[in-house]
Amino acid sequence: MNERLASVLETLWRRSRFVSYFYQTVQFIEDETIPTLALTERESRLTLYYSGQFLKTIAPDEFSGLLVHEMLHVVLNHDHRAYPEEDLYLQNIAQDMVINSYLVGARKTFFSRKDISTAPAELLLPPGLPLVPRDFIAVTGITDPSWEDLYRWLKRQP
Prior knowledge:
Elements: H1 3-15, H2 17-24, E1 27-30, E2 37-42, E3 45-50, H3 52-57, H4 60-75, H5 88-105, H6 134-140, H7 147-155
Parallel strand pairs: 1-3
Antiparallel strand pairs: 2-3
């Protein structure tokens, strides 16, 4: 396993047993054709494809946040709730926006474990990830949308 990946998984063990237990069931495959990360099912097993080059460019805490992000796609059952006959790319964007917005809002409380001498770690994501647009909230009044709500709204946008 990639050393940087192993180090981040060890840190996740200390910060969140739930996240750590999740990743103990995942197979990891380095694949430079993947620009960042992709968590999918392969041969009835969750598999995280990752770019080793990408791992060299991202801070460990931001990488940890991205692992939490990918895990939430599975926890929230996004793949099984997809509309296969519709725009899968836009569905993924809507899912990402909902997850990223949730994680930004929960960044100070997501990790509940703390060392004796410190407060719980803050969950970090790389800057610039897509969030639920303010226009969506202003138009719909929905402040905690499902990805399906957001997807239907995004489809109607020019």
